[in-house]
Amino acid sequence: SSLLLASEGARLVVTDIDEGLAGHTAAEIGKAGGEALALPHDVSKPEDWSSVMAAVEQRFGRLDVLVNNAGIAIARNIEDTSLAEWRRTMAVNLDGVFLGCQEGIKLMKKSGGGSIINLSSIDGIIGEAELAAYCASKGGVRTLTKAVAVHCAEQRNGIRCNSIHPGYIWTPQTENYLRDLGTLEQEKAKALSRHPIGFLGEPNDIAYMVLYLASDESKFVTGSEMVVDGGYLAV
Q1: Residue 48 and residue 25 in one domain
Q2: Using one digit for the tens of pLDDT, what is the confidence trace for 67-119?
Q3: Three-class DSSP category at 131
Q4: Does 71 share its domain with 22?
Q5: Is the pLDDT at 180 greater than 90, yes or no?
Q6: CATH number, domain containing residue 82
Q7: Res. 208: pLDDT tops 90
Q8: Based on the domain organization, do 32 and 115 belong to the same domain?
Q9: Residue 195 shares a structural domain with residue 160
Q10: How many domains does the chain have?
Q11: Is 38 helix (H, G, I), strand (E, B) or coil?
Q12: Residue 36 host element (H or E)
């Protein structure tokens, strides 16, 4: 998403709990002629959000788009999930979005509006037995997004808020999750069979939806759940 947004002229702040990964992405953007700032960021910590937003305002003077994309998944059913695993999942996946929306709204209001894009999941709409905490956290993102959207609309502050619900996107996180379930090739085949379109998604499939929601072409879209899942939820 960062590379695609940069190719369309966006100036970016790339954050990650692993500053090296953020730096790598920012460097790639720079090589392609874009502008990006990399910062370390634990989304579960309010003080990190304050630092990031201060850096954004100092460097660019405004915030137009916020993408809340950080997330973790632990392959455990309800009986096997520890309280520590539950709380960590909620801290990253839901607290992080809550804090991001709060801080993002503060800065966006100063420049007359913006677009908040929260990454949820198809598992924020349906349940997966082996993803109890993840499903709960992503369901929270789905409905929090709607609450934020309605609040901002009622305040007439020019801020839109939407959620994206990917199906299985082939990323390291998805690969690790499938490995936790069993043999990778067998689990990948099972996942593939649940997508009527006949293939798994790629990161750019989500990036194009992010680009749409970030743009003025989506000015009438707020409080929506944008499902990008190859037909997964249609059957």
Answers
A1: no
A2: 999 999 999 999 999 999 999 999 999 999 999 999 999 999 999 999 999 99
A3: strand
A4: no
A5: no
A6: 3.40.50.720
A7: yes
A8: no
A9: yes
A10: 2
A11: strand
A12: strand 36-40
Range of the domain at 19: 1-40
Q: CB burial class (10 A; 0-12, 13-18, 19+) of residue 100? A: buried
Give just the sign of the alpha carbon dihedral 161, 165, 171, 174.
Answer: positive
16-45 core/surface letters (b: 16 or more CB in 10 A; e: else): bbeeeebbebbeebeeeebebbbbbbbbbe
> Is the distance from CB of 22 to CB of 40 less than 8 angstroms?
yes
Catalytic residue among 134, 168, 177, 232: 134
The answer to whether residues 167 and 214 belong to one domain is yes
134 tagged catalytic: yes
- Residue 177 predicted with pLDDT over 90: no
Strand 36-40, strand 12-16: pairing: parallel
Q: Are 225 and 162 in contact (CB under 8 A)?
A: yes
Any idea what the Cα angle at residue 145 is, between residues 142 and 146, rounded to 5°?
A: 95
**pTM beyond 0.90, yes or no:** yes
Stretch 56-61: mean pLDDT: 97
Task: Give the least confident one: 46-55, 82-91, 177-186, 200-209.
Answer: 177-186
